Amino acid sequence: MLEPINKIKLKLGIEPNGRVQKFFTNTCYKHMDKYVPKDTGSLRRIVNITSDKITYQSPYAHYLYVGKVYVMPQNQKAAFYDENYGFWSIKGQAKIPTNRDIKYKAPRNRLLLG
Q1: Using one digit for the tens of pLDDT, what is the confidence trace for 77-97?
Q2: Could you give the CA distance from residue 77 to residue 45 in angstroms, rounded to a whole number?
Q3: End-to-end CA distance of the chain, in Å?
Q4: CA 110 to CA 62: how far, in whole Å?
Q5: How many Å separate Cα 35 from the centre of its chain?
Q6: What is the C-alpha to C-alpha distance for residues 37 and 57, in angstroms, rounded to an integer?
Q7: What's this model's pTM, rounded to 2 decimal places?
Q8: Is 20 exposed, middle or buried (0-12, 13-18, 19+ CB in 10 A)?
């Protein structure tokens, strides 16, 4: 007698959220991590990994995912810079996308807002 497909999948670990999916997701994360921009490291630290999803939860993760420079509509600036503080934006200020691509200084390193 043949086993039901669900039992076969369970034995092989290929059911939804099974051990194969978890292994695949964790392997992807390990390989992706070195390509996640690292300035302060907050994007790499604030990540949620489930069996089938990797979600970067830093406030600027969306901008990096889209790959376009976002600016404040009032002044068309992506951010302000202070050498003692670093880059910052006005809190609560919504940004809009531009047609400019985000440029990286070096692979696996810091990003530049182009």
Answers
A1: 888 888 888 888 888 888 899
A2: 27
A3: 64
A4: 16
A5: 10
A6: 14
A7: 0.61
A8: middle
Residue 70's identity, in one-letter code, is Y
Distance CA 100, CA 39 (A): 20
Nearest-angstrom CA–CA distance, 47 and 49 = 6
Nearest-CA neighbor of 92 among 74, 110, 113, 68?
74
Reading the block at residue 112, the tokens are 């530049």
- Amino acid residing at 21: Q
User: pLDDT-derived band of residue 40, with 50, 70 and 90 as boundaries?
Assistant: confident
Q: 47: helix, coil or strand?
A: strand
Q: Which helix (H) or strand (E) holds 10?
A: helix 5-12
SS3 1: coil
Phi first, then psi: give them for residue 107, nearest 5 degrees.
Answer: -55, 140
